[in-house]
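ok so for the tutorial part 2 we go from a plain amino acid sequence to predicted structure tokens. step 1 is just haveing the sequence, like this:
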Amino acid sequence: MINYGFSDPNPRTSMRRKMKVTGSGSIKAEPDIATVNLGVVTENMSLEAAQRENTLRTNAVIDSLLKLKVSRKDIGTASFDIQPQYDFVEGRQEFKGFRVTNILSVTVRDLSKTGEIIDTAIASGANRVDSVRFSVENPAEYYSRALSLAVRSASEKAKELSYDFGVQLNPIPIRITEQSSVTLPEEAQTMKLMASSTPILPGQIEITARIEVVFEYR
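step 2 — the prediction. this is what the tokens look like for a chain of 218 residues:
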């Protein structure tokens, strides 16, 4: 998609006219890292009992991951939450206990072990698996290549417009604005897991660079 604009063509009010174009470039990359969010949810009428059970099960999950050679620095707390639970019976609110939720964020550096890590965590006491997110650990190289494609795209669009309108383009831009992002396909970015035996397939990641460039012409 091209966004472009021309300034006032009256030479008395504008000696040089401006053209604005956008350019984009995308590079496909194989993911080399995954982030798994999983954890333990416990409920009990006693908050102390719910916390105690949650701590025991969470520690068991962490120990099981360490035995799979997951580094301790790759295991962190994504969220921790305590909520009272209520039921409505005949229009009245009745307390039904406390819910304690402890979600861990696990960085997986060997993607072939992603499914095994999830299975092991569940076998060790995890009862909630939120998502698996794939990415590249060092995206700078891919982004640089995508940015080069975006620059080429913007330059070619400006040349095409100047040719079509019969104007002389100054190929050196007067302003460049980056509008970039790393785009993850939805099916690869976040997968809600219904069962621990579900195969984990990373797919590909698309790293996209977008720029807005302003050229002068006459």
